[in-house]
Specification:
The complex is a heterodimer of chains A (307) and B (274). With 307 residues, chain A is of the alpha/beta class. Chain B has 274 residues and is α/β, with parallel strands linked by helices. Helices cover 39% and strands 12% of the residues of chain B. In chain B, strand 6, helix 9 and strand 7 form a beta-alpha-beta unit. The longest helix of chain B has 25 residues. Chain B is globular and about 50 Å long. At the A-B interface, helix 3 and helix 5 of A face helix 5 and helix 6 of B.
Chain lengths: 307, 274
């Protein structure tokens, strides 16, 4: 996904002279070519996330569209108050790219995990939030971020995510992308766990539990229509994300269902509200937090069979 | 160099600004009168003599930018902006009143002439650095002026921006520090000492000048040639007195919070020639 973002950004920069890319000393072996090709419109501001948000705002107030790239915890949490007052309040064209989100920095522990970023960004008026789940969604989100007039947060994980989508034609600003159709339940997924969600739905369909899978690469503004439609069509709704179960996709979907007046069985799959104080592979850390195909399919089956 | 008559006229202007600031702060039972008084001469001079701005075209991309990073001194800036014709003077009567856009902290909410939302400390200078970078990239001639407080120089984001500006040789950036030696809880020297202040800025590759921030002679001298050095951002350390202009307000930190009483208002009015 990171590569898809970067290639798209470079393409955009070639055509649009109003783009400036900033990095807070991140992107070693990633940004060198950008720096070479656009020496004036690429700036490494050093390890200064707080002032970089201010600088980005100053540039944006003078007409630039600024893409600010840093690791997700530092791009969002270290400088949250600056994002709130400078970027969100002023409704400026600052696009924050939080890379290595979730457990991507799997060996580095709590300091480098970003499991609260989406929740924080959701709290901010004017903020659009993209959580792409594959390189196609990342490319689309980057292009959309440029087109949108105002602040954007794009949450991406490290390189190496498989391509899930075959086309971009169904995407629109509040995209909800139906990947599988089935009547027993609906699973909403946002971001890095899209491939896992696909596996879950395929395993369940072999057990006569055919479900609908919808990817929501836009967390804010959330696509209410597609959620309400799911509530109407299937009695069970599940959400899946590599984020604290508080504040992210699960919360966003829950808020809409709760106010819809519909009787729906609902469960959030995400990282439980506690710190993960161990190291390991991404897969290990997810499984440790209850996020594996086996654990999730068992829980969904239990839900469906109980009723 | 200005002649005697011009200096007298500026002094009169400053006294009138203090009169209006007193009246709108008293009407609103608002705070921060002393912070507004310590910057009067500096802002008056900038808006009268230095800044290339046009109230009729406040969004001109080539305009000089002034950011009041110590956004709680806003009553002085509003008063000057109103006098310059950025908005109607009667708006001043709504300062801190129900439903008004004349907020008690500089807020970029459509009020003409307000370039940035500040007052949360350490925001103004980074934004100013961004604007100065944009000016260099777009090859525009405008300059960016940022006025910060001394207390604000505790903030890490301020020092990040100081490091950035020196590194990027932003000689289109001018910072004025309102060094009135008070911060929220006490004396700057006691809370978190900034000294040796000049050396700190110099070490960060800035060109430094110190002045008496209430002397129009020194203010006019310091702004007579900008930048101070080619290839370096300029910093004016302005030694000021918090509450300058009214004896009962001067150099007492309670005026960061209090509104004057009837008795104090009478003293102020008398000393300001009302």
């Amino acid at each position: 996904m990171r590569t898809a973002f970067l290639n798209t950004l470079v393409d955009l920069m070639r055509v649009n002279e109003d783009i400036i890319s900033l990095t807070a000393d991140m992107g070693f072996s990633v940004f060198e070519d950008v720096e070479k090709e656009f020496p004036e419109r690429f700036l490494n501001t050093g390890v200064t996330e707080q002032s970089t948000i201010g600088i980005a705002t100053g540039l944006a107030l003078c007409g630039y569209k600024v893409f600010f790239y840093a690791q997700a915890p530092f791009a969002t949490m270290r400088c949250f108050e600056q994002i709130r007052l400078d970027v969100a309040y002023n409704h400026v064209n600052v696009k924050i790219i939080g890379v290595a989100a979730g457990f991507s920095s799997n060996q580095l522990g709590v300091s480098h995990f970003a499991l609260e970023d989406v929740g924080l960004m959701r709290l901010l008026p004017n903020m659009t939030i993209f959580t792409p789940g594959d390189p196609i969604e990342a490319e689309w989100a980057t292009k959309a971020a440029y087109e949108i007039n105002g602040p954007v947060y794009i949450r991406i994980t490290k390189a190496g995510s498989p391509v899930i989508h075959k086309t971009q034609q169904l995407f629109h600003p509040e995209a909800g992308i139906k990947i599988k159709n089935g009547g027993k339940f609906t699973l909403f997924v946002s971001g890095s766990l899209l491939p896992m969600a696909l596996d879950i739905v395929e395993v369940l369909s072999k057990k006569n539990a055919e479900g609908t899978l919808i990817s929501l690469p836009v967390i804010k503004p959330i696509n209410k229509k597609i959620i309400l439609e799911a509530a109407r069509k299937t009695g069970y709704i599940f959400t899946l994300e590599e984020h604290n179960i508080i504040g992210g996709l699960g919360s966003a979907v829950a808020e809409i269902i709760a106010e819809s007046g519909r009787q729906v069985k609902f469960y959030r799959f995400g990282v439980p509200d506690k710190f993960t104080s161990i190291t390991g592979s991404v897969q290990y850390l997810l499984e440790y937090n209850g996020l594996s195909v086996q654990q999730i399919t068992e829980t969904i089956l239990k839900f469906i069979n109980i009723s | 160099m200005l002649d005697k008559k011009e200096f007298e006229s500026l002094k009169k202007y400053a006294r009138e600004i203090r009169q209006t600031v007193l009246s709108i702060i008293v009407a609103a039972h608002a705070s921060h009168i002393a912070s507004s008084y310590s910057i009067v001469e500096l802002i008056v001079y900038l808006y009268e003599k230095i800044l290339k701005i046009d109230p009729k075209n406040p969004q001109d991309p080539n305009r000089d930018r002034f950011i009041l990073s110590k956004g709680w001194g806003i009553s002085t800036l509003y008063t000057i902006l109103a006098r310059k014709g950025f908005f109607e003077k009667k708006l001043l009567d709504t300062y801190c009143q129900d439903g008004s856009k004349m907020i008690g902290i500089a807020t970029r909410n459509g009020t003409p002439g307000i370039e940035a939302t500040t007052g949360s400390m350490g925001h103004g200078l980074p934004i100013g650095v961004g604007m100065a970078l944009a000016g260099k990239l777009q090859k525009r001639e405008y300059r960016v002026f940022v006025m910060t407080s001394d207390g604000e120089c505790d903030e890490g984001s301020t020092w990040e921006a100081i490091l950035q500006a020196g590194h990027h040789k932003l000689d289109n950036l001018v910072v004025i520090v309102d060094y009135n030696k008070w911060q929220s809880f006490g004396r700057v020297a006691d809370v978190l000492d900034l000294e040796p202040f000049v050396k700190k800025w110099e070490a960060f590759k800035w060109s430094v000048k110190e002045i008496d921030g209430h002397s129009f002679e020194e203010i006019s001298q310091v702004f007579s040639r900008l930048p101070f050095e080619k290839g370096k951002p300029s910093i004016v350390i302005a030694h000021t007195i918090k509450g300058k202009g009214v004896s009962v307000l001067e150099d007492r930190n309670e005026w960061h919070y209090r509104t004057p009483t009837e008795k104090e208002i009478k003293i102020a009015e008398s000393e300001l020639g009302l």
